[in-house]
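Weekly sync notes, structure subgroup
Attendees: PM, AL, DS (notes)

Item 1: joint prediction request from the bench team. They want all two components modeled as one assembly rather than separately. Inputs as received:
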Amino acid sequence: MKFKKIVSFIPNEALDSNYWQKIDAVANKRVMLAQDDHGVTKELADADCLLILFNGVDRITIERAPNLKYIGALATGVGKIDTKYARSKNITVTNIPGYSTEAVAELTFAVLLEYLREICRAKTESKQTRTSEDNFHGAEIKGKDFGVVGLGRIGSRVAEIAGGGFGANIYYFSRSPKQMHASYRFERLDQLVKHCDFISINLELNDETAGIFNAEIINNIKPKSVVINTAPLELFDLNALDSRLAEGDITFIFDHTDPGDINDSDLQMLKQYENCITYPVLGYVTDEARTAKQEIFVNNLESFLLDKPVNIVN
Amino acid sequence: MKFKKIVSFIPNEALDSNYWQKIDAVANKRVMLAQDDHGVTKELADADCLLILFNGVDRITIERAPNLKYIGALATGVGKIDTKYARSKNITVTNIPGYSTEAVAELTFAVLLEYLREICRAKTESKQTRTSEDNFHGAEIKGKDFGVVGLGRIGSRVAEIAGGGFGANIYYFSRSPKQMHASYRFERLDQLVKHCDFISINLELNDETAGIFNAEIINNIKPKSVVINTAPLELFDLNALDSRLAEGDITFIFDHTDPGDINDSDLQMLKQYENCITYPVLGYVTDEARTAKQEIFVNNLESFLLDKPVNIVN
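Output from the run, pasted for the record:
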């Protein structure tokens, strides 16, 4: 069993050539399109398989693809896909759970520690000249209140590293209280943000979580705290975030600066603030994650064709 | 009981003014000198208390100070003080143990994660423009072999964070094998360096450890590994390190670039390599460590004068 025609919005460089070969082995034809390609309507008409990266797939796109049987996302989050509508059309949507859990969790501490210890300034100045440590400041993670918002795979690992490793006090918010670890304390989101020194946001984006960081929550965030968001920015009321950042009393770090995640004007709005630190989407960028992701992605396609589908999200 | 005369090589800015006030409360006189001040011989002649930062105190200095009773180091390591000779002259030497344990351990992960995830390049490029993650690489700590050389206070914390937090496999070398944690594996130093992906060096400098990283050990370090040295560079045969760095197959990160730790020619020798990353001495630079350090330092003086000396190292 093979796909008749695959339409792929995934750029060539996102998969190693041997994985593209495996994909071609289960398809009669493969068409590569840029995300905004105007040929999309025509090419989707006879496609039975759609491959995407972080792109959204809305009702209109699905209606343009009456033969679609399968949408394979080369990502964990599928919040931008209308998975319910896809199911109503008998389209199976698969994702890649967990492949970047460790990569995202470790990045959280990479960017937090960079900020706390002024690592980039120190590295740059030290490269140029002998630099005294006298004009540097630092703070420690140990003993601080560390809030984890969303205790799924990634949030759980962030909590383990922050608590079991660095010795922070772990507070968490989750839509369903969990008894994963006796020393983690559940709190309502509006309470958690009031006292936590560090807040790692690891919520999935869906109808319930979109905009969960509303103006009230954002205004309640503890002054001098550091917020690290490796989750989609759609969790935030960006205007309220803009206003809070303008006060200059919190630091906001996020790694979602690609066009699919934030438009130019919102990005410029946030980047104007010194207390807003941005990164490329590095969360999933490790050798280990890249290999695991590709293995699972191809296996998802093959398993679907063998009528033993795995990693279905709808 | 008060000191008659304190000679201090500690720069004014190293202590907050309220701590200088506490020191002055237990001394009739305080003379501040730069480390290389030529008046040092004369001023030491009638001093009974010498305060130092990381400076060395050799036999000659001690001989110039026949009335000296106390040497207070505003540091943990006292490897550059001739403590035995000081004891022979009935001089008590005190240090500040443990104040920077957490600060150094956390810095180890700050600089390791910076390297592994290309944090500084990512931050700089992201500030300038929208940056794709496509040209970034990364690697994870989880599941790797993590070697800790020296399992004292700092090394133990590094091992806890790397193992209990990040999920690395912990190997350690210590001059005396310790049964601190069932999952840590003791190895000889020449064995440890052969297979560990990351090596954190946390040995104290003393007669036994000076030069312990000799040519044979350095040449045995696993290719592609990352070595993080937050300990004194005197642990290394710098010529052998130079030769190994020239091969370009290991990364060496260290944070001791002040004149007291390494001379200009050695520093330039190491810094010429892209695979040698330097930082200012940030290991102890956190708000928490600074406060603890000053509290302990002043308490050491007061306790000595009350005939209840603490933190004696000789």
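Discussion: The two ends of chain A are 22 Å apart (CA to CA).
Action: AL to compare against the crosslinking data before next sync.
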